[in-house]
Design a protein that fits this description.
Blueprint: H1 6-16, E1 31-32, E2 55-60, H2 64-75, E3 80-86, H3 90-100, E4 107-108, H4 111-114, E5 123-126, H5 134-142, E6 146-149, H6 157-170, E7 174-176, H7 184-195, E8 201-209, H8 212-221, H9 233-236, H10 239-249, E9 253-261, H11 292-298, H12 315-325, E10 342-349, E11 354-360, E12 369-374, E13 377-381, E14 385-390, E15 396-400, H13 417-431, H14 441-460, E16 464-465
Parallel strand pairs: 2-3, 2-5, 3-4, 5-6, 6-7, 8-11
Antiparallel strand pairs: 1-15, 8-12, 9-10, 9-16, 10-11, 12-13, 13-14, 14-15
Helix pairs in contact: 5-6, 6-14, 7-10, 10-14, 11-12
Organism: Dokdonia ponticola
Pfam families: GFO_IDH_MocA, GFO_IDH_MocA_C
Domain Gfo/Idh/MocA-like oxidoreductase N-terminal: 60-177
Length: 469
């Protein structure tokens, strides 16, 4: 096994910083504690100045994620022109079409209708529900479109492999929205690991705190509450994390073990006096942390899922109506949910590198936490900052990795990763060069297989080998 020359790694990094000391100098714009208010803009700052004609695209699914990528076109119209939309919810279809000045003939109710016409754009943006990724992606590739595909790739391993095979056969570009690869925080962590500054990578511990209200919103009441109808939570929520861990390690995963279950959000834990809906006179509504009336109506949290009327004075009544008619108003203990609310995954990578990943619903906070252990140093981080400790010198350095909330960045989530991905995808499509992306279908397939094998391990209570063939 080739060993890392740590002294050479430090020298190379210092050279890249103009000969300055790595441990006292910002990494590519990352601010040290000497400038606590400093922020960073991703190295691949949004926007492609050399693009003369925009990529034309059709969006399939005009919900939250469809608007994230669509908004990039609003901010950078010379790079991305949304010329079509397929969306079954009329108000979403209408608002998306208005925002992008989409002509009526390019507005569709279902994704199938888009492909009844000859190819009329450069690319397809697929932000449909998880179980509706496979069909439109396969059809788009057959018809010669390049694709931006929201994660997960597809609900089954077979379908993921089929998309990969067709992408290779057609030569089209498929970028998977593993946006954490484009977040400055993870970019810099990977650079530090791969540089050898911490010596040999030995182990990683990574935590994804979902936050208890977020869990109840998305995976108990929300669209992903039933794994059979969508995808298992390890893919629906955490394929980002499996992907970023594989990317940072830089070596294949050999075997995986997983544990977890649905412990709290089930009928056996329903308090006495609870009703099927929080609006039905529930006796414990005022003392329940998962009260839909509190979350959506009184606190006005997570209301992005509702298609509000234009008149803001009617929003309160509108929310109450949604709570009386949709799953968002139902008791969290009386849903048809089956997603685990805690999930622990242990992985062994090549060269005996071990990784532990924990997805936890019952936290009061968001924001991934990462601990990286090497033979000559360690790194701890929380997506806002990370701290590097050098074992030889004892020097401790803190790096600020937050992103400025300036106009070009305000619509990009995941630590700045959403729009950084869009920037690279547009460049890759224009140049017809998939190597300009880090989250191609080829790269993303491995972490999906890790997710499927984790779920197999959880259900069979066995350690499962990872095979990419």
């Amino acid at each position: 096994m080739k060993k890392i020359d740590r002294r050479k790694a430090l020298k190379n990094l210092a050279t890249g910083l103009g000969g300055a000391s790595l441990l006292s100098t910002p990494l590519s714009g990352l601010a040290t504690t000497t400038d606590p208010k400093g922020k960073t803009i991703p190295a691949n700052a949004y926007g492609n100045k050399d693009i003369e004609e925009p990529v034309t695209a059709i969006t399939l699914g005009a919900g939250a994620r469809g608007n994230v990528y669509g908004n990039y076109g609003v901010q950078f119209p010379k790079e991305l022109d949304i010329i079509g939309v397929a969306e079954p919810i009329a108000i979403r279809n209408e608002r998306y079409a208005k925002k992008h000045a989409i002509p009526d003939e390019n507005r569709f109710t279902t994704w199938e209708q888009v492909f009844e016409r000859p190819k009329f754009a450069d690319a397809i943006i697929i932000t449909t529900p998880d179980d509706l990724h496979y069909g439109p992606c396969m059809k788009a590739l057959e018809m010669g479109y390049d694709v931006l595909l929201e994660k997960p790739i597809a609900p089954t391993e077979e379908e993921c492999r089929n998309i990969l095979a067709l992408a290779k056969k057609t030569g089209r570009i498929v970028a998977v929205c593993h946006v954490l690869r484009y977040a400055p925080y993870f970019i810099k962590l990977r650079e530090m690991i791969q540089s050898g500054i911490i010596g040999e990578l030995v182990s990683i511990q990574h935590l994804e705190p979902i936050q208890h209200i977020h869990m109840s919103h998305s995976y108990v009441r929300g669209n992903w509450h039933n794994s059979q109808k969508t995808t298992p939570i390890i893919l629906a929520k955490s394929c980002h994390d499996l992907d970023i861990l594989r990317w940072m390690v830089g070596k294949p995963c050999k075997r995986i073990s997983a544990f977890g279950n649905l412990t709290w959000f089930k009928a056996a834990n329903a308090p006495e006096g609870s009703t099927n809906r929080c609006t039905d006179g529930c006796a414990v509504e005022a003392s329940c942390p998962y009260s839909a009336l509190k979350i959506y109506h009184r606190d006005r949290s997570y209301t992005y899922v509702f298609d509000f009327p234009e008149d803001e004075t009617k929003h309160g009544d509108f929310i109450l109506e949604q709570l009386k008619t949709t799953n968002y108003g139902r008791c969290v203990y009386k849903m048809e949910n089956d997603q685990p609310d805690h999930y622990v995954t242990s992985m062994e990578f090549e060269d005996d590198i071990t990784v532990n990943f924990s997805m936890e619903a019952f936290t009061s906070y968001h924001g991934r936490r990462t601990r990286i252990m090497g033979s000559h140093g360690d790194i701890t981080g929380d997506m806002n900052e990370f701290v590097h400790t050098d074992f030889l010198s004892g020097k401790v350095t803190k790096w600020d990795s937050t992103v400025d909330d300036v106009s070009n960045y305000k619509n990009s989530g995941h630590g700045g990763g959403d729009w950084a991905l869009a920037t690279d995808w547009i460049r890759a499509v224009k140049k017809q060069d998939a190597s300009l992306l880090t989250s191609t279908i080829d790269a993303s397939i491995e972490s999906h297989i890790m997710g499927f094998m984790a779920e197999k391990s959880r259900k069979t209570k066995q350690t499962v080998p990872i095979s990419l063939t």
